[in-house]
Amino acid sequence: MKFPFCVLNRVFLRSGWGWTSIFVGSFVFLLSLSVRRSLTLTLRHLSRLAVAGGLWLVFRKLLSLLENATGSCYELLSGAHELSVAANEEGQPLLLLREGETKAVCISSGMLWRGYEVSEDIFLLSFCCLLLAEEMAVFGPYLKLGGISGAPLRILFLFCVLLLSLWLFLLFCLLAYFPQFPNQLLGGALGCLSWRATYQGWYHLGPSWYCPGRPGVGLLTT
Q1: Edge-to-edge strand order for the sheet containing 95-98?
Q2: How far is CA 10 from the centre of its chain?
Q3: What is the pTM of this model?
Q4: Which residues contact 169 (CB under 8 A, 6 or more apart)?
Q5: Looking at residues 14-19, what average pLDDT do you find?
Q6: Interatomic CA distance for residues 131 and 24, integer angstroms
Q7: How many CB atoms within 10 Å of residue 174?
């Protein structure tokens, strides 16, 4: 199971927000134009993706600053194996603290960085899953109201469903095979908090110059 996860992680997860933006953005764009053919309304609904992308960039920066502030760089003393065995009953190699190094410089120099890290992967996967579920939930009521749904729109919806399934699969694999508590718990909490603050809070204020509104507002009418 770990091998297919590594392949999917390399292909999809490293650019997870890009995949989510492409499929969700295409679905929202086509659905909005199919109903109203209004560029202003379409851009308003697409602005939710811009908000989500901004949150992702801000949290990535904040989590990187947190890890740099709480971490330290260590150099592996591979040549001192006999001394390390005498100093450590488990025979672990000695680590020399290197002060004043950032994480990027530390890792690029082949040294070890140890700091408090919140899982960005869990944050991204949980947030993208909730975002996909919110944006796709409009399609059912849209069809019940007799909305036109051609092949392109249905195909895009199917791709969004497959992407949601993939993100859930990768999320379960991370939790099952690479457990890192409480780092993953905090990452998931941040993802849920971002969804709660936007889709369950801010967007309920209604469409305005400062709020894009909930999915389907202005579209789901008879």
Answers
A1: 95-98, 72-76, 112-114
A2: 15
A3: 0.85
A4: 8
A5: 89
A6: 9
A7: 20
What is the average pLDDT value for the chain, to the nearest integer?
A: 85
- Report which secondary-structure segment, H or E, holds 75: strand 72-76
CB 58 within 8 A of CB 79: no
d(CA 3, CA 159): 24
Residue 217 in tokens: 């507002």
Instruction: Write down the residue that tokens 């290197």 correspond to.
Output: 98
Any idea what DSSP says for residue 80? G
**Whether residue 182 has a cis bond before it, omega within 30° of 0:** yes
Q: Tokens standing for 185?
A: 């718990």
Strand, coil or helix: 96: strand
CA pair distance 48, 131, nearest whole angstrom: 10
The pLDDT of residue 187 = 93
For residue 37, with 0-12 CB atoms within 10 Å meaning exposed, 13-18 middle and 19 or more buried, which class applies? exposed
Judge whether 160 and 139 are in contact, CB under 8 Å: no
Close Cβ partners of 21 (under 8 Å, ≥ 6 residues apart): 49, 53
Q: Is the pLDDT of residue 7 over 80?
A: no
Tell me: pLDDT of 92 over 70: no
Instruction: Determine what percent of the chain is predicted with pLDDT higher than 90.
Output: 47
